[in-house]
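User: Structure with pyridoxal-5'-phosphate, tokens only please.
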Amino acid sequence: MKYISTRGNAPELSFAEAMLTGLARDGGLYVPKSIPTLSQDEIAAMAGLPYEEIAFRVMKPFIGDCFTDEEFQGIIARAYEGFRHTARAPLVQMGPNHYLLELFHGPTLAFKDFAMQLIGQLFQFELERRKERVTIVGATSGDTGSAAIEAFRGLNNVDVFILFPDGRVSDIQRKQMTTPADKNVHALALEGDFDDCQARLKDMFNDFEFRDGVKLAGVNSINWARVLAQVVYYFSSALSLGAPNRKVSFTVPTGNFGDIFAGFIAKQMGLPIEKLVIATNQNDILHRTMETGACTKAGVTPSISPSMDIQVSSNFERALFFAYDKDGDAVTKLMEEFNEGSFTISQGAMEWLRDQFASGRASEEETKKTIRNEFAETGEVLCPHSAIGVKVANEQLSEVPMITLATAHPAKFPDAVEDAMGARPALPPHMGDMMEREERVCQVPNQLALLETLIKDRIAAR
Ligand SMILES: *Cc1c(COP(=O)(O)O)cnc(C)c1O
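Assistant:
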């Protein structure tokens, strides 16, 4: 199994190499050269198996010969042992034909733990084998950072630096990033928004001298291994509802397009998925793109669903790559135009995209109303991101069962939830003292050179 860049101009890599590399050297994202499929019998045979076993069978065709079966099973087992629900990703019924997939039972209470815990174990295994160290730099709108820190804290072969937009993450999200005491963890509060964080991260990857000097590795949702980890719960949840003999649809609260792209991969692998619905908040560039065919940046307006406050949706490039029939030059051209602010998708590619994805958006008011109504009708307390999914899913219900991804625990966003429904969701007991723990954080200006110096100094000081 080889991986190629969406811009067609970087070396082909193995799974482990693509994982350690993150962003391709031509600025593109790695995708499998061809997507492996599972037969309907192979899918049916996974019904009722533990999450870890489904994970092994779904991901194995993508890893080539990078790990033995035994090694890979061990990695998966360690990745998910810290989850606080034995089903890992349990389904809850919301209505006659609507289900919620709870992806918030991991250590940081957001779905990002599914990918990050796995990637932590994969990195640890691979770097030990290679006797190498890397510097992980991540940009976060809140949940990626805490998930990355939780996955890599205390590991010998890794320094982890997380850039987050100063003042634009929730208190819990910030605490989760700034309170771990491990020496290899560095939380950096950047003056700017999430797109600034992501842009500086891209700059670091494109500065080859810096990149090679500190052995930079990326764990943002551009990392293929993260997308792959997320493919698994599309299978596990669909199997619970009768796949492959019954089709299901999914609605996915979307920011960077990573989670929903994993759904696309599941479908390409042979999982019978009827509809994949993109749900956005008021920062609705993806919904507008699906409606108009024009992808045009507008400023980010901070919302009560901060993990979706994104205008540059990096994984959308992977969808474009498939929409343009794997034409790396066409994707390169679109991305260059996007750097200037806007690009228009060809009619053929747009038809392909509309065939694969539906879309919807929720305003701030609609999000709050959904939190209030769903609590009244089902007793389920939704986080604002999950509420956006539920609102958009409710518009798309049909005779095919709908699964909405609940991407975070409501207690991660207590102010928004309290404002919406009048009661404050409590943190799970094991996190009860989070707000009292001491913080370590470094405020940084939005300047590449300063950031690079700081990172080099911190590594040298270890
Ligand atoms: C990251 C995140 C999202 C968006 O996921 P993408 O993969 O970036 O589309 C949605 N909800 C929550 C809670 C998140 O942390």
